Aspartokinase (Jeotgalibacillus malaysiensis), 818 residues
Amino acid sequence: MGIIVQKFGGTSVGSVEKIHHVANRVILEKEKGNDVIVVVSAMGKTTDELVRLAGEMTSRPEKREMDMLLTTGEQMSMSLLAMALQNRGYKSTSLTGWQAGIRTEAVFSNARITEVKTNRVESLLNEGRVIVVAGFQGMDENGEITTLGRGGSDTTAVALAAAINAERCDIYTDVDGVYSTDPRYVTGARKLNGISYDEMLELANLGAGVLHPRAVEFAKNYGIKLTVRSSMEETEGTLIEEDAPMEEHLVVRGVAFDKDIVRMTVVGLENELTGFPAVFSILAENHIDVDIIIQSKLDTGKVNLSFSIKESSLDETLQILGRHKDEIGYQEIEHETNLSKVSIVGSGMVSNPGVAAQMFSVLAKHEIQVKMVSTSEIKVSVVVDSNEMIKAANAIHESFGLNRSAVEA
Amino acid sequence: MGIIVQKFGGTSVGSVEKIHHVANRVILEKEKGNDVIVVVSAMGKTTDELVRLAGEMTSRPEKREMDMLLTTGEQMSMSLLAMALQNRGYKSTSLTGWQAGIRTEAVFSNARITEVKTNRVESLLNEGRVIVVAGFQGMDENGEITTLGRGGSDTTAVALAAAINAERCDIYTDVDGVYSTDPRYVTGARKLNGISYDEMLELANLGAGVLHPRAVEFAKNYGIKLTVRSSMEETEGTLIEEDAPMEEHLVVRGVAFDKDIVRMTVVGLENELTGFPAVFSILAENHIDVDIIIQSKLDTGKVNLSFSIKESSLDETLQILGRHKDEIGYQEIEHETNLSKVSIVGSGMVSNPGVAAQMFSVLAKHEIQVKMVSTSEIKVSVVVDSNEMIKAANAIHESFGLNRSAVEA
């Protein structure tokens, strides 16, 4: 019997009834003789409601105060779940992020976990208690409350699992597993029984949305077996581990897509040598995530530098680049919005050349223009017009034989 | 120019508009050149809503988890107020109880402040920031989040004022000051310009409800000038200090009343010597507040011991006394509910014998039966049937010349 970490997202704890239901799930695992640590997100729409309130205070709330405000959401749901467990006769203690020993870097709204001090959690587990931990939050070295950014509760769960050497980390969510693609948009999408960390990492990074990339990274680094499963149904879910067997005849595991991409172009960069590092270190300092990067040399000897960011970072990125114009040395900044990224992922690609070619020919057949490309050993991503994202995803998903009917046949 | 501590209660921060209004109040004080620390309660009905949620989890939530849940209320309002101040261009930082250095004893739901570590607040004040602190909460030596009990935000404000050597502590509330009695029930009630700590302490303890007794105690011990004033109107309020001048011809400052009193009687106490301390130490250990105490000797040599408690403590008191029956040694426990306490308070009483006599004769004239009596140098309290509480308060208030018309004449 080991330690199991369970994570329940906002939808799973979205109402009084659902919290009681989660308590049942927790008890099921506890009754198997396991020690259980539960990580919870804020109840359903709580976070949205808090964001709305903040918006009525000021149009640009400071990140520190936003973190202060938002972390109340998880503190609420964790104490309610602990009460529901106590109501069923189980000893339970809820802990905020800082009480559970989650230490982060000194960054608001998007901090990384630097350390997990497990002594308190361990001693409470030794008392036979079910520990309920607030996801998404931690404390920095100055005693400031920080948050881990979107999907941060997954990261909390996996970091705790790693630190406490848990047997497994179960991510309960409103879907029953990881799919070959998003079933809301692609009809043939099917649930995967298994997937490797690396593939999941690409899918998570590519916006599949089921799991936070940092959580997968943590799991990979510490070899924590992750499952993604439904909080509502008693089904198997998807197991994420180092070497997930590939189904026959397939080289691609899944197709992901992500809208609200912006292509930024730094036009007429004066000095390639100093300009490149300048742009990306300034963006990194400001915690702006850059994805695909492309450069093109002009006849003048100057260079254009293009990169993709999330649309939500657009305003900030424009401001930052504007502020550092002299330092970077460029003529102007252009940007194109209304773009999306579509990607194929699969560890089988390495040994199967021609996968990218197949992808491009499918897109060409459907007359979809490719605006940016990026590849890794296990993925190919293209940026297309947002209006063509769904069409592209469907065509690619079918072309690589991922459709439910194709596999079952 | 000194440090001013301002405290705003739940009604004062009850909506987005009201929080903006509070921000104005804070800025007014800041613009006078003062350093300002603001202590806030949870927004309006937040606490009630959280209590309701807890009730849907379990009928008997553990106090620790209740504290965990309820403290989110102040954390919300403090961050929202800090945002409202930032929106107006003022540097502001919100702090939870533990971040503001509020240390308490290791008791849930009703902890006392043991220490205030001011270093963080001081260094933030030195940066010219307005500090917004979550009232009602603190942290014990084990890193547990605790709450200070009803009205605890007042205590937070005064404790901070004392620790930081503030010039004044302003308690903003939905009434415009301390009244000679509760104006909702007694027509002639009038606002007092001043009142002494001791009188206020008796009034607060007697349920006048404007200020938490512990807050007044703290203010008295550290000589902090307190004002109680309206958060909505620009009026003077009531100043609470050591020696508040008495208005002419008056010996009584105010009349307080408090319903939901229960008279408990320990019938047939076997051993007076050991039984008395046993009863009260057991109740104290369980943090049950006992008010009036009366004993009566029976012919058998045994003793009946009566004492009054709040009705909310009745169930717990019955259980505790039942559990310790052998240890205390008694025949049975009786209790009478539906009782209320009516009290007169005034420092003038000491030098004016006959005050109690006047009170009893007024009650007799109105045929109100007195069930328990208790006196101190500056107060006389009687316990009466709850149905007669308002009648008694009105009669006494008028009899001691406290009515508005009487004083103005």
Remarks:
- The first strand of chain B starts at residue 3 and ends at 8.
- The mean pLDDT of chain B is 92.
- The CA atoms of residues 359 and 396 of chain B lie 7 Å apart.
- Chain B has 13 helices and 18 strands.
